[in-house]
Amino acid sequence: MSRSESLAAYLRAQARRQLDRVEANDGGRNARSALALLDTAAYAAGLPEDDPLILMLAEVGCFASGTFDPGEAGARLVRRWEGGEPHELLLALPAAMAA
């Protein structure tokens, strides 16, 4: 599995997790998050292995285990993501991981 595919698979799994969440009065937040994550997964799946975003995520250790893993801080950012341009989430991950 390529890094791009691994990243996309992670994001799709997180989108499914958001869709499976049932929270009273979430105001559609989980649905918005799932759609944003699916959008980002589709974007990530199309990135070449030498794309600067993929290389940046590799530099901070997101692929150290062979599959995409942003660590707990990165995972929190992904879980809270509600929208924006797909590349914005990918650009925000290294800073979240360093915090």
Features:
99 residues; mainly alpha; 5 helices; 0% strand; globular
Question: Which structural class best describes the helix and strand composition?
Answer: mainly alpha
Q: What is the CA-atom radius of gyration, in angstroms?
A: 13 Å
> What is the distance, rounded to the nearest whole angstrom, between the alpha carbons of the first and last residues?
29 Å
- Largest β-sheet summary: none
Question: What share of the residues does DSSP label as strand, in percent?
Answer: under 5%
What is the global morphology? globular
Model description:
The protein has one domain (3-98). It has helices at residues 3-20, 29-45, 52-59, 71-80, 86-98. Helix 2 crosses helix 5 and helix 4 runs antiparallel to helix 5 (86-98). It contains five helices and no strands. It is 67% helix and 0% strand. The mean pLDDT is 93. The protein has 99 residues and is mainly α.
